[in-house]
Structure formats: structure tokens, C-alpha cells
Amino acid sequence: MFSEHLQRYAQEKYELRLPFLGGLKEEIERAMERCTLIEQVLMKFLYGTMPLRDAGEYDFDLFLGYVRHSIMVYEQMEWCQEIPEDMFLHHILYYRINTENIEDCRRFFYDKLIDRIKGLSVREAVLEINYWCAENGTYEASDNRTISPVTVYKSGKGRCGEESTFAVTAFRSVGIPARQVYTPRWAHCDDNHAWVEVFVEGKWHFLGACEPEEVLDKGWFTNASSRALLVHTRTFSDYSRDSETECLGKEDLMVYYNGTATYALTKSYEIQVLDEDKNPAENVHVSFEILNMAEYCSVVNLYTDRNGKVSLTVGLGDVHVRAMKEGLCCEAWISPEDEDGTVLVLKKEAEKSGINAWVDADVRAPKDYPVNPVKLTKEQKERNRKRIQEANQMREGRIAGYFKEGEASSYPDETEILRLSAGNFDEIYNFLSKDQNPDRKTMLNSLTVKDYKDARAEILENHLTGAAPYRKKWEENGHLDIYVKYILCPRVLLEEMTDYRGFIEEFFNEDEKEEFRKNPETIWEYVKQHIGFETKLDYKTICSTPAGSLKLLQSNPLSQKILFVSICRTFGIPARINPVNLEAEVYETGRFVSISGADEIVKDRTEETGKLVLYGETDNLWTYYQTWTIGRLKEGQFVSLDYTGLKFSGGVLKLDLEPGIYRLITSVRLPSGNQNASEYVFELKKDEEKSVTMRLRAGSLDDMLVDNMLDDFEVTVKEENKKEKTVPASVLMEGKSNILAILSEGQEPTEHVLNEMLEQKEALESLDAQIIFLLQSETSLQNRTISKVLEAIPQIKVGYISFDDTVEPLARRMYVDPEKLPLLIVTDPGLKAVYGCSGYNVGSVNLMMKLLGLSRNRL
Predict the structure, then answer these.
(1) Contact (CB, 8 A) for 187 and 293
(2) φ, ψ for residue 332, nearest 5 deg
(3) Which of 474, 689, 693, 819 could cross-link with 611 by S-S, CB 3.0 to 4.6 Å?
(4) Which of 850, 624, 829, 629 is nearest to 740 (CA)?
(5) Are 664 and 695 in contact (CB under 8 A)?
(6) Which pLDDT tens digit goes with each residue over 283-326?
């Protein structure tokens, strides 16, 4: 069934991995002996290529379940017979897709799908499976922990990384090669996205996960992806690399492939790095970065060859490049207009130009270009609309069915938690209702919303029991909140929730426990001494559980901090991961003290800090991860501190920071997707107070204008005889410029916009443009504010649209949030949109009138 080449590869990788499996080695080798020869080849391939932490987290039989299922579909599904060997290994067999919790779930998905796709071609099966995915999962914003595909099914929701993991699992379960596709950051807006590619009829095709269409190679992100700077896929091994796709090389365990050219116009760039003597510098780390969320996000990491060179193909926008080696660095912007390669010269950070001064950068996003211009017929659109409505009803009905009103009524304060738990209702309810211990409710309220979807009652129970002996002390000294958050709570960061207390209690002897309680710093000493990290054998974005770290004596730096905190909590020591800098801390004498952030452990820990005072013009200009960030230089790169939610007060913000080199970044995102950015690099010393006046560069009116062609849509209007007729929007909008206002009556943002219209009544009446209100139905006219505006400005036209079919495509086309209404769009005559915004922005009506005049002058 499999080539000799694969058998040799799997055996070699497996033998190289065995020394790192610690005490699990003999157990795995014994289990391997009971497998068939074919199973052994695939199991050795998995154990030889998987993130090392997975071997310590999951049992042998879990992986064997994936192997046996993949063999079954290979033998039974006709379309599997033509699939190349490496594609089978990477995109059908492989158990891991993202950073999800792994469960043996392929048979579950197979049983749900197999009867539904019988007799279909592989192309038809793909489309049908995606409708099934929509019937069982939809988008929901959430934290970065990736839940399993089974949890997505039970909860009916997931963010795009979880939706795509869910869909890829569904396709692989029936033998259709599938992979997750990812743009780490968009260039034109502060976000990212993941979707799916499937291998059909000898070619990779894309589709939106849980977002079905009637055809392949279409999704809401088609235009957005044409503006991408980077789109990539990844595999967990380098077995038979894809020769048709640019390989971005290895980063730790992963092999990355550049898929940008499938979606966008691209250009190849060559960077040469020179040392201080202007000689080519070999093995220099070169980071390609996208400005997004007011920080430089590293999306590709390469190392220079003997000529000091690296090359990369990216979309046609501006990319920030930073090169670093042994305390030296250099950086630059690369742009589509650059004809020759860029040359960088390494220097010390403090010797670079721009220290203690604001440096501006005008950052351009790629323009959209119809690389994949698939059009649907009217019949296809109608069929798709109907099936999506049915899918939504089926999903919502199934998820609502998990909630048990009778049981929940006994816990009115926890009703929302029980509702959010969806298919995990019984687990949460069984834990909550076991007895009258008040800490049951307290523990549940200490968890994340996502935890309610997959936390197990048994694990919660063990944490409740394990923490109980330490409760009295903290209650008596008036700090029960410290006990709840930093001893009782089983959630440390984004790791899988496990019964680590029981494992840790058994792992250490009594003498070690006593020493740990007396001196928490010895816990960190133990972790650093005994827990290693093999960066090339792991997937750095997955956190290990505490038990997994101790089983393998191996885990990444963040997981080592999670282990430290878990040991502390097990032995009654309040501890946490600092949310700002991700350092491990213990609570001592009324404050948290960093343990992992210190260069060395000292008995008398004192904080060494300086103070940064930031002066901003007005408080509402400064939103962290939107208009500004601050990062600290660490191992050659600036790492953003997480000050989410922190506000300026009276135009001032004071921060206590550790000594070091820091970088402030500010950014204004323009409607075109371009950014006006500025950065300020400075050094802060111990006990120093440094003041910086913030700089934020607003755009001009010209910067507000875009050129986005809208897809036509249907609008129902009333004629003079009061009969209804449905016409294309392009007919309504021809001849004059237009302001389209999609309104959600009664909601506060819509009310604000309508009140602004009343204030601007005279200007709007004399406007040489049509104002068109687009509403859901005639009942919207009963809204008092809408009727007031229509009475005050009688020339406003009114039309009715299907919000389900129309709002999201229009918002996506304008690159604004489809979840926020009102949606306001300014167009030239016809369907060419020149401005769009969603939600309420102060002065939006006045701005639209100014832009109309500017746009007419441009025609």
C-alpha cells in the first residue's frame, strides 16, 4: 500500500524521536508490536513527525484510531485511490490541523456524512459536506484557545480557525484531502482569517469553512484575499514537498508553503543583509512583518544563505522587514515599486537612526483585484440562500435542544453559563448540582466562556477538592478573591484543562512539596533544571498541559510557566501568568512578583522599574491594538505588551516598565486599507521617568476615498400607485451619486445617524445626490425617528432588502464590520462605491457630504 521510501522515512523519523519520549518509550514500542505492518508504518510516521508534546498528552490508541480510519477510507472511498502518497499522509491521515484538542473523532464525522454523499462525485460531495458543516457550526468570536471539532459540533459555534478545523476534519473523515489555509494578518484591516482548500479533480480549490456556496473557489473573502500580503498552508513533515508551491521553509517543526499567488497578484523580493563591515552576513534571522493592530506581526521567518540573501513572494503592498543576529539588527520597508533587491546593514539597536524620535511611515495595502471572479446565476443564489436559511434553523434548533429548562431553573444566576455550555450542559450541570458547596458557582465564574463548552465535571471536581484545604487561610485574611482566582481556578492560560493537581501531588515527594511551599522560587528552579525544550520538535503555539510537561520533561517556554503556576496552585501558592508580559508570578505581601522574568532567582526580590509617561491629545484617540501598542526588545525582536482595555485619563497614561529598549507604534487605518503609522524607539533605565508625546497622523479627505465596485442586489420599492416592484439597485442608483443607508431601526447607532441627518437637514435637502434608506420591511417606517427624518427630508427614497442576503456582502465589499449597523455607503452614479462605514461614527453624515463633493470633482 505504501512505498519503500515512506517506510524508510517513517522508520528514520521514529528512531530519531524515541530518545525524546522519556518514560513513554517502552510503552509505545510495546503497543507498536500489536499493530499490523501497514499500521506500524503510519504510526511511526505520526510519532516521528508529530509535535513532541502530543506524544505526552495523548494515548497510543488515540493515534491508532486515526491510522485505522484513514486506512479504511483509503480502501473504501474510490476517490482516495488516485491521491498521491504524500497528500494522503498530510491531508487525510494527519490527526492535527491547528492547535485544537485532539479527540478520536473521525468515525463520528464519517458516520454523519457517509450516507449523505453516497453516489456523488467528489466535487458534489465537497459542496454537500460544507452545507452539513453550516448545519452544525457557525462563526463566533472568542479567545485563542482552539476547541476540538467535536466541541464545535456540540456548541454549534467557533471562530474561523475552529470552523476551518471542523470542516477539514469532516472532509478528511471521508477521504477527501483537505487543509487549512491561513492569512496570519490581513494588510487592509486589523484582523486575520482561516479557510479551507480541498483537492478535487487533480487541483486544490478553496471554500469558506461552514460558509457553503453552490460552486468552489468562492467565498466572502474572495476580494479580501486578493489584497493579502501572505497566504500560507503548512504540514508537519517535509515528506515529498509540494514542488509546485513555494516552500517558505521550516519554522520549528512545521513546513510552510506560500499560497499567496492563488489569491492575489504577487511579487518576489530579494533581501541581502550585510554585517558591520559591509560583508554578506550568513544565517541572519530575517522576519517579514505586516503592520496590523498597530503592531508589526511577524508572518515569515527566514535565514540568509552564504551570500547573505533571502527571497520571498508576497502580495503587492508594503511589508516591514527586520533582520537580526547576535545583538545586531536592521530594518526597512519593501514596496511593490522596488525594482532591485533591498540591502540591509546590521547595527546595534541603540545605534540606529530614529532613537528617541518619531519616525513616520505611509503603509499601503494591496488593491483588490479579481483573481478568482466566480459569478453565480440567479438560480444558484436563490438555492444557496434557501439552504443556508434551512441550515441556520437546523443548527439553532439542535443547539437549543441541549438546554434543559427544568434543571437550569434551580440556578437562576448560572442560567447563562448553562445556556452557553450547549452540548456540554450535562457536564456543567452535574458539577454545579452535586452539593451546596458555594465554591462550585465561584469556580464556574472564574472560567472562560469557552471552558463551559468542553470542561468535564470530573476534572472540575478534582480541582475543587484539591484547592479546598487552602481556602480557610485566605478567607480569614480577607483575600478570598486571591484564593478563587489564583489557587482554585483550574484555568492558567490557553492550555487544555486537565486534572493536573492529582498528577502533581503524586509526582513530587513530601520533602519537595515542603520546600516548594517555603520557597516558591525553587519551583521555577526545578522547572528550568528538569524541563527542556527541543524547538525543532514542537509546534510553539500549542501549550502543553502540566502533566504532559512532566511526563516528557519537555515543553515550550510558555508551557514551562504554565507548569510553574500549576505546581504553585496545587500546593496552595497563589500564582498567575501576567497578562501583559506573559511572565510567571507569585502573590507575596499584597502584590504579584515576577519569577520567570528575572535573570536569576534571588531570595530578596525587588522590582526594578522605570516609569513611562505618555501624553495624548484626547483620551478617545487611544485604543490599544487599534491605534497604538508598545513592545519590549527581547532576543532581537520587539514583543508587544498586552495592555488591552487600558485607557488614557485626561490625556495622560503612566506605565511602570522594566528597564529595557521599547518601541511605541501608532497607526491610523484609512478606508482604503492604507495606514498612517509612526514609531518611537527609546531606552528606559531603572528609576528613570521618561515622557513621550504621542503622535497620531489623521488622514486627509482624499485618503478617505476608495474605488470598490459593488455586486448588484435587489431592492423592493413602491411605485406611485403604491404597487411593489423589485428592481436592481443599479437602476435606482444610476444618474446620480448616492448615499445608501442600511438602517436597523430602534438601535442606538442608527438613532445617532438619523439624529445627525435631522441636524444636517438643510444641507441634505440641497445635496446633489440621492439618499436611499434600505430597510427590512414597511414596519420599519413605524419607527418614530425614521418617520421624522422622512418627513423632514421628503426626497429620501425608501427601499426594502433582505438583510440576510444583502448586508454581509455589501459590508465585506467595503471592508467594514458586517455585524454593525447602520451600514452607510457613498457611491458615484451606479455601483462604484467611494466610501463605507458601519456602526456609528461621530460626524459620519457630514463626512459623507464632503466626500460626495470630493468624489464628483474627481470624476
Answers:
(1) no
(2) -165, 165
(3) 689
(4) 829
(5) no
(6) 999 999 999 999 999 999 999 999 999 999 999 999 999 999 99
User: Residue 544 and residue 144: Cα distance in Å, rounded?
Assistant: 15
Q: Which amino acid is at 133?
A: C
Radius of gyration of the chain (CA): 29
657-680 burial by CB neighbour count: b if 16+ within 10 A, else e? bbeebbbbbbbbbbbbbbbbbbbb
Q: How far apart are the C-alpha atoms of 605 and 389, rounded to whole Å?
A: 60
The string of DSSP codes covering 374-405 is: ----HHHHHHHHHHHHHHHHHHHHHHHTT--H
What is d(CA 739, CA 285) in angstroms, rounded to the nearest whole number?
50
> What's the rounded Cα separation, in Å, for the pair 502 and 10?
36
pLDDT digits (tens, 9 = 90+) for 460-484: 999 999 999 999 999 999 999 999 9
**CB-CB neighbours of 423 under 10 Å:** 20
Select from 777, 771, 606 the least CA-distant residue to 687. 606
Cα–Cα nearest to 504, from 550, 553, 464? 550
- Per-residue cell: 774: 434600505
Q: Is 706 within 8 Å of 835 (Cβ atoms)?
A: yes
- How is residue 302 written as a grid cell? 527566514
Check if the beta carbon of residue 491 is closer than 8 Å to that of residue 446.
Answer: yes
Q: Which of 137-151, 327-341, 709-723 tops mean pLDDT?
A: 137-151
**DSSP letters of 168-192?**
HHHHHHTT--EEEEEESS-SSSS--
CB 372 within 8 A of CB 208: no
CA–CA gap between residue 714 and residue 729 (Å, rounded): 6
Q: DSSP state, 597?
A: T
Is pTM beyond 0.85? Reply is yes
Does residue 288 sit in helix, strand or coil? strand
For 61-78, give one letter per residue: b (16+ CB within 10 A) or e: eebbbbbbbbbebbeebe
- Contact predicate 576/486, CB 8 Å: yes
| DSSP symbols for 127-150 | HHHHHHHHHH-EE----S----HH
Strands 347-348, 328-334: pairing kind: antiparallel
Beta bridge partners of 600: none
What CA–CA distance (Å, rounded) separates 224 from 232?
A: 15
Angle at 495 between CA 523 and CA 504, to 5 degrees: 40
C-alpha 140/C-alpha 127 separation (Å) is: 22
- How far apart (Å, rounded) are the C-alpha atoms in residues 850 and 831? 19
The strand pair at 832-838 and 708-709 is best described as: antiparallel
Name the helix (H) or strand (E) containing 853: helix 844-858
Q: Which residues contact 105 (CB under 8 A, 6 or more apart)?
A: 148, 149, 150, 169, 173
Count of Cβ atoms closer than 10 Å to residue 223 Cβ: 22
Strand 738-742 relative to strand 770-775: parallel, antiparallel, unpaired? parallel
The per-residue pLDDT for range 419-455, each reduced to its tens digit, is 999 999 999 999 999 999 999 999 999 999 999 999 9
Read off φ and ψ for residue 233, nearest 5 degrees: -125, 175
Contact in structure between 153 and 161 (CB atoms under 8 Å): no
Nearest to 399 by CA among 425, 417, 432: 425
Q: Phi, psi at residue 137, to the nearest 5°?
A: -155, 145
Q: How many CB atoms lie within 10 A of CB 283?
A: 12
Residue type, 35: C
User: Distance between CA atoms of 275 and 654, rounded to whole angstroms?
Assistant: 38
Amino acid at 834: V
CA atoms within 13 A on the CB side of 397: 7
Q: How far is CA 203 from the centre of its chain?
A: 27
Task: Give the integer Cα–Cα distance in Å for 588 and 601.
Answer: 15
φ, ψ of residue 636 in degrees (nearest 5): 90, -15
Rounded Cα distance, 257 and 28, in Å = 32
SS3 call for 264: coil
